[in-house]
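[job 4471] stage=fold_predict status=RUNNING
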Amino acid sequence: MKYNIISADSHVNEPPGTWIDRVPARFKDQAPRVVATPDGGEGWKFPDEKGVASFGLASATLARGMVRGPDQYIANGLKFDEIAKGSWDPKQHIEDMKKDGCDASVLYIGVAASVYNIKDRDLRLACFRAFNDWLGEFCSYDPARLIGPPLLPVEEESIDDAIEELHRNVRQWNIRTAQIPIFPWKRYYDRFYDPLWAAAQEMDLPLAFHRGLNRPFSFGNPSQGGPFMANQVMRDFSYCMPFADLIFGGVFDRFTNLKVVSGEGRTGWLVHFVQRADESIRRHGPWARIKLNRLPSECVKRNLYSTFIEDRVGILMREYIGVDTQMWSSDYPHSDSTWPNSLQSLDEQFAGVPAEDRYKMVCGNAVRLYKLN
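[job 4471] inference complete, writing structure tokens
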């Protein structure tokens, strides 16, 4: 298949039967489920969570059968049958991609990151498997166009649980990537994760972070549109923490070919990150006895792949952060999405950029990373 445009970060919205239909019988009464909300809509209720994740901005650009711009977004009060069908039906997802001029999509979670917060271990692991099987079924409709990273249970007492689930998904669904939480309780510089890094490197399979498990940071004053508005801005910078843990923890010294992806993190902030990180190594590395085989900027250009929706600064500064590791995304059907006007957005963002660089960032890098040819 010939690819011209790939969204390296789009989204699903899990349908009501995702967990109830797939967990063992003994867990069905406890499994995540869709419930009615006081505003007349519906949302997801997860065990051990007080609130309900209502439908709304997760399908902002297409709701109640209507393509919507920002002034028409519906934040709350939607029922499941009012959200974008393409976010849970693979046939319709492909039709929506075609409408946007997109040839393939990497599909991240809707609400599934809340599985990490389930307290009962057996239920938690059953829910990981249930979501991963639903996503695998979704992508099996057209594996050349639909790429879904399963969630790995990296917060168990043994990292073997994550590795076993990784191998299971490789065998059963022939996955091309997998997802881990951006803020795990045990930081990513810890050698606890080394067997997982080794397994991913051996398979040449990239591991991805994506916002969704919103810990431990929250920003903003509720009376001034925050913490939502503050998080809209600050969440991109939150990728600094796992990136810094991996780089300064020497992970890329031990696993030189490990590839990590930041989903929906944008790229402009990386310009400051690589400049500050390299400067810190030069000034403070000697006296602090920090020894890395490569500068942080070299790790960013080789090991860290980043996605962006609209990021003119990152595009213009691409040589500093790596033109071979940036990937465009439409974010369909979320509130930051350029769908269904992505082609116009791309033309505006890439004005004056050589065709070769544009192709890498809107398609070629994703083709290479996910082995689509």
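[job 4471] summary: Confidence is low (pLDDT under 50) at residues 218-225.
[job 4471] exit 0
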